[in-house]
Each structure stands twice: as C-alpha cells, then as structure tokens.
Specification:
The chain is an all-alpha fold. It has 14 helices and no strands.
Length: 299
C-alpha cells in the first residue's frame, strides 16, 4: 500500500501550479519597481540632510560657492569651533535651554493629557460629549490668535524672559487628549474590570494597568510634544529677551542675521539642532508606528 501511494504523493509534491507561477512572475517586476520608488523617495528626503552636514564641514568660500559640492573639497571643523566658542553665540546654552524646555513641557503634556483622556474614555459624567467637543473645537483655533492673550498672562505671572514662559502655556493641548483618548478606547475594558473586582481603585488601575499598556501612545505623544516645543520659533522670540535665555531656534535666527553669508555656520547650527531629534526618532520609531496604528481603531 505504501509503495503504491509513494509515487502519487511524490507527483503531488512535484506538481506545479501554473496560476501561482504566473502570479509570482508578475509580482517580481512590481517588487523591483516598488523598491526603486522607495529608494528614490528616500534619496529625495535624505539628500537635503546630507548636503546640510556636508556644508557644515566646508570652508567659508566653499560653502558660499554657487557650484554644488556634495563632498567638501577641504573638510574642516571651523564652523563648529566658531559657533561653540564665540562669546556672542552661546549655542551650548541655547541647546541646554531647548532640551530643558522641551523635556519639561513634554512631561506636563503627558500628565495632563493622559488624565483628561482617561476620564473622557472611561468615566461617565454629565456633559462628557460636550466637553470632548469643546476640546476638539480648540484644534481649529490658529495658535497666532492666542499669542497676545498668552503674552499678557505670562507677563502678569512674571515669567517673561524665563523658561517657564515657553514651558507652561503649551502644557495642555487638545491633540494630546484626543490622541490618548482614541488609544484608551482600543484597550479592553475587561482588564480594568478585573482590577476593580480585586479591589483596585480607579487611580491605581489607571497608573498600574492603563499607563503601562499605553506605552506606544505615550512615547508617540512625547515625541510629538518634544518636537513641537523644540521647533517653536515665534513664541520664544516674543517672550525671551536675554541672549543666554534663548532657545535654539530663536538663537540660531540671531546667528543667521549676524552671519548672513556664513552658510557653513548656519548649516553647523542646523546640524546641532537636528541631532537630538533624529536620535529620539530612531529610538522611538517602533513605538510610534504601534501607537499611531492603535490610536485609530476606535472613534
């Protein structure tokens, strides 16, 4: 019996499916075209960064040349030495100020947004839909409209020309509440109900169960909040006056005004401003994909 069925099974294993082979043949060129398109798009987006880094290592004459040079003819670190040692451009101090302001505001955003979002996602109270609607409506208000009111409030509090002026006003935002609420809705309620049965309070359930499960969303929101504060230019220019209290974007603008044709200095400053952001994104990219994906599961 086994000898009779052996050729049949061997034939079955050796048989070919023409439809499958035809489909695989069509997929081959598609994959090649897809990879080529991805490589081209990557080069389009990465090339400005590469040219920025290359220009920062050029001499002043080469950086101002109208002929593009992707590889510096005479590599030098003169631009970096200049921005880090010139007394009138305390780039290190600006970098520290930006890191401190962006980090502290990010922590405040995570605290306020997570608690507000959990209340809107899990706690029933009168007018919850209206409150959520009002929060979402604030997303349609242009930030420039709030410039003067925020300036007056910061002035009354005595925070002008301090880092508090660039930390506190943006510590509570509608986007963070909306984003985390959508993520909390995607979490199974059974985990929280089991904790309630075991005697856990709502605060303990939120702190020990909901927040650990929401790490991808929290990391994503943290990165977005950090970038928002890090890249902010208009508000720091209005509320920070002393050169030593400036953040990096505002400080680099004075560097540009003082050295309009020193493209090597400008590119060196841009590289310094880009490095922390790139490092954070590389470290958190897997959490960003998961957080954004799960935040859109429920409405």
């Amino acid at each position: 019996m086994s000898t009779a069925t052996a050729p049949t099974s061997a034939t079955a294993r050796g048989s070919r499916d023409p439809a499958r082979e035809s489909e695989n043949g069509r997929r081959g060129p598609r994959k090649v075209l897809l990879y080529v398109a991805l490589v081209v798009l990557s080069l389009v987006f990465i090339s400005p960064l590469i040219y920025m880094v290359s220009t920062s290592f050029k001499t002043t004459a080469d950086a101002a040349s109208t002929t593009p040079q992707w590889i510096p003819a005479n590599p030098t670190t003169q631009a970096y030495e200049s921005i880090f040692t010139t007394q009138g451009t305390p780039v290190v101090r600006w970098l520290v100020n930006s890191l401190a302001a962006a980090t502290m505001q990010t922590v405040l955003v995570l605290i306020t947004a997570s608690m507000a979002a959990y209340a809107l996602a899990r706690i029933d109270f009168p007018g919850k839909r209206w409150v959520f609607g009002l929060i979402i409506a604030t997303l349609f208000i242009p930030p420039v409209i709030l410039l003067i009111p925020n300036y007056l409030i910061v002035g009354r509090l005595g925070w002008l020309d301090t880092l508090l002026a660039v930390i506190v006003p943006g510590a509570a935002g509608a986007f963070g509440v909306f984003f985390l609420r959508q993520f909390f809705l995607s979490l199974p309620k059974e985990l929280e109900e089991a904790a309630f049965i075991d005697g856990a309070t709502r605060w303990r359930t939120f702190r020990t169960i909901v927040l650990p499960l929401s790490r991808p969303a929290l990391v994503t929101l943290a990165l977005l909040s950090f970038l928002t504060n890090w890249n902010d230019f208009l508000w720091p220019v209005y509320v920070l006056f002393s050169p030593e209290n400036q953040t990096l974007p505002a400080g680099l603008s004075t560097l540009q005004n003082a050295n309009a044709v020193r493209y090597d200095l400008l590119m060196a400053g841009a590289v310094v401003a880009s490095v922390p952001v790139l490092v954070m994104y590389i470290a958190a990219q897997r959490y960003i994909v998961e957080g954004v994906g799960r935040a859109g599961l429920k409405g």
